[in-house]
From TrEMBL:
<dbReference type="Pfam" id="PF17900">
    <property type="entry name" value="Peptidase_M1_N"/>
</dbReference>
<dbReference type="Pfam" id="PF11940">
    <property type="entry name" value="DUF3458"/>
</dbReference>
<dbReference type="InterPro" id="IPR024601">
    <property type="entry name" value="Peptidase_M1_pepN_C"/>
</dbReference>
<dbReference type="InterPro" id="IPR045357">
    <property type="entry name" value="Aminopeptidase_N-like_N"/>
</dbReference>
<dbReference type="InterPro" id="IPR042097">
    <property type="entry name" value="Aminopeptidase_N-like_N_sf"/>
</dbReference>
<keyword id="KW-0862">Zinc</keyword>
<dbReference type="InterPro" id="IPR001930">
    <property type="entry name" value="Peptidase_M1"/>
</dbReference>
<dbReference type="GO" id="GO:0008270">
    <property type="term" value="F:zinc ion binding"/>
</dbReference>
<protein>
    <recommendedName>
        <fullName>Aminopeptidase N</fullName>
        <ecNumber>3.4.11.2</ecNumber>
    </recommendedName>
</protein>
<dbReference type="GO" id="GO:0016285">
    <property type="term" value="F:alanyl aminopeptidase activity"/>
</dbReference>
<keyword id="KW-0378">Hydrolase</keyword>
<dbReference type="Pfam" id="PF17432">
    <property type="entry name" value="DUF3458_C"/>
</dbReference>
<keyword id="KW-0479">Metal-binding</keyword>
<comment type="similarity">
    <text>Belongs to the peptidase M1 family.</text>
</comment>
<dbReference type="GO" id="GO:0008237">
    <property type="term" value="F:metallopeptidase activity"/>
</dbReference>
<feature type="domain" description="Peptidase M1 alanyl aminopeptidase Ig-like fold">
    <location>
        <begin position="440"/>
        <end position="532"/>
    </location>
</feature>
<dbReference type="InterPro" id="IPR012779">
    <property type="entry name" value="Peptidase_M1_pepN"/>
</dbReference>
Amino acid sequence: PIVIRREAYAAPDWLVPEVALDFALAAAATRVRARLSVTRNGAHDRPLRLDGAGQRPLSVSVDGVAVNDWRIEGEELVVPLTGAAHVIETEVEIAPERNTQLMGLYASGGNLCTQCEAEGFRRITFFPDRPDVLSVYSVRMTADKALYPVLLANGDPVESGELADGRHWATWHDPFPKPSYLFALVAGNLAVNRGSFTTMSGRVVELGIWVRESDLAKTDHALHALKLAMEWDERVYGREYDLDVFNIVAVDDFNFGAMENKGLNIFNSRYILADPDTATDYDYDAIAAVVAHEYFHNWSGNRITCRDWFQLSLKEGFTVYRDQGFSADQGSRAVKRIEDVRGLRAAQFPEDAGPLAHPVRPESYQEISNFYTATIYNKGAELIRMMASILGPETFRAATDLYFDRFDGTAATCEDYVACMEEAGDVDLTQFRLWYAQAGTPRVSATLDSVGSRATLTLEQHVPPTPGQSDKAPMVLPLRVKLFGAESGTALTEERLVLFDRARDTIIFEGLAERPVLSINRGFSAPVIVESDRSAADLAFLSAHDDDPFARYEAMQQLMLDTLVASAVHGRADHEGVIAAVANTLDDAGLDPAFVAEAVLLPSESFIGDQMAVVDPDAIFRAREALRRDLGRRLDAQWRRALAQGVAPYAYTPEAKGFRRLRSVALGYIAASGAADAAELAFAQFEAADNMTDRQGALTTLVSGTSDLRIAALDIFYNRYSDNALVLDKWFQVQALASRDDTGAVVAALTRHPDFTLANPNRARALVGAFSANQRAFHAADGSGYRLLADQLIALDRLNPQTAAKLLPPLGRRRRFDAARSGLMRAELERIVATPGLSKDVFEQASKSLE
Ligand code: B3K
Ligand code: ZN
């Protein structure tokens, strides 16, 4: 395989200051004519090399004269050139309706759209398809007017008109130089929800959300979120929008969540369409977050882009950090932080502990699409968060101002970003840079010894080895620390930000009036694993008294984890501590219901597994169910009270959302208790619900139970939503995630359901992706889960390598399991690697997982 290395970066030989594209659009065959003005970059005599993807040019001309001295080398078009500046014209024909990879120009639901990041533009036309070549684009499109009445591209619309043969045309111009990955066009039969936003300097921007006519009523939430995001970015980062129009188009077939193309974002419809009947609170929140994320990229990504793909976290980590801040400001900061940390632990920590671990700024790749990972995105966001904590809010803002100002209009590096933080913050981030270079989640052991009025906190850190990196240096870990009095329950110290940057260190606290209890890594100030010797009593104490809500949640989680791991290892454990702490939290009337719901939820089966030397899925399931049953029984009155609380007609407010969340958690515990009326309660909620959150919550509970009402509810749900693809995804997903003995068989049957298709990434992820996240079902001892995943993955790879490769990582976690399971997983990986015609996407992930 060809390996691309970060250190091999070289500036482009040729630049393309301007490009004009002319598309004769049709689903079966689209003609693309490209006119590139190219300039030689530096003194060299090398020819022009343009990336392609297997096409042959129909014609090539240089300065208006047809030439035939070009050649194809691999997938590149090589054109010898003599001067310092030329105009190159090429013509190709592509077939959007045969494009199942969904990269480049493709058809979705009868419309035509593009996806170019990272390397899709080369599937449209020959071009230096790399992010450090920035060009001003002019685009002309002609198409059948009846089939494609709407023609959109980047930038601002210029002109449009009619043609004789039922065709029409439109031209668009984007004045901002951009890399090819930000190119976009859409041709389709679309309706628009329009709005407008007046920027801080008084410019009026016309906003449009484009969807199929029948979905128009589901676009208000996204449009509202867009306006909130535009206002937030002005207020919090001083960033103003820069074009006269901002368009978003929703499509059903999309490899990712959404794409930040300049002025023309293209979205997976699941991150646009919402109404209370079809979308959950989780969906509403995700829509607002993704709309904001893509909008924020206009500055962190588009105005300042990446020099090369190793710098991907420059735009993604920073933009995730920005969208997390935006979402935190829409509701509870504490709950948002809990959700983000839960997500990091569910996706990034396992990645960092497995065969696909890589630094936030990787050193090499075979296929760049495989590096759109939780490490680049979510760990990358944690790096920005740590620098923001080190600088403090005002200085951080001065540092981002400096960064935006200095690098506007350029293709920058992670190093450029850190240098701005360093300069504006007047701090030395030399050692901090290790966060970009070293993979693996640091482990911190924290011990607090107190004698009289003096306490010593001893910290030790260890960064585990990861592929290609056996020895690690100590990192800078910003740890927020505070001590509480064990008797009084009040704070003994102020919160301190400890910059722990050695293998071992001690911190002394003096003048303590009583025995201290340690609260550490408050707010999850560093993305690390903390091992402390705090007793169950101290954890219970913190879960009730800590004044940082995240730390309260964390103490409760640790108490639950300690109990569950002990139980999974020894077959049983004392549940009293957890029951008392959960009761305390449920009875604390001062707490936000959304926080309570998060705090009383047990850690997931996989997260429990991550704490064990060898994951035992069945023992974990039994331990967790036993604790759930005890919590359900012992706190029955509290759960029923929570279930009755805050019931009101649907509203999308933080308060109403919190009540809904707590009600669905309560329903789950009532079901776990084995109460005779549990299924009826769930079914009643399922039928009475005036919103999808309550309906899906009830269905989720029913589907993991044994009552026949489960079948009834699934049928009602299916029939009610059989024409709504996004809700059918939920129907598949809820079954794939069910805690049942027969889930593997159910999922196998669902792969043959008439509504199941691998051609649609959302559907593939809803069934196959969800199944592999269901620890007990996926890790069935007979290997049937592994076989199912491998079969689907091999089939999907023939259509869509990028989405297939994303399904592979669960098979790579084999070293975490017993020898029998590990061997079965290995056999499936070997079968995948031996598949003829395998894509490089899947090959890279599978072969690395076998190492
Ligand atoms: N930048 C896009 C990534 C799409 C890449 C697909 N291979 C989405 C986002 O992070 O905003
Ligand atoms: Zn992004």
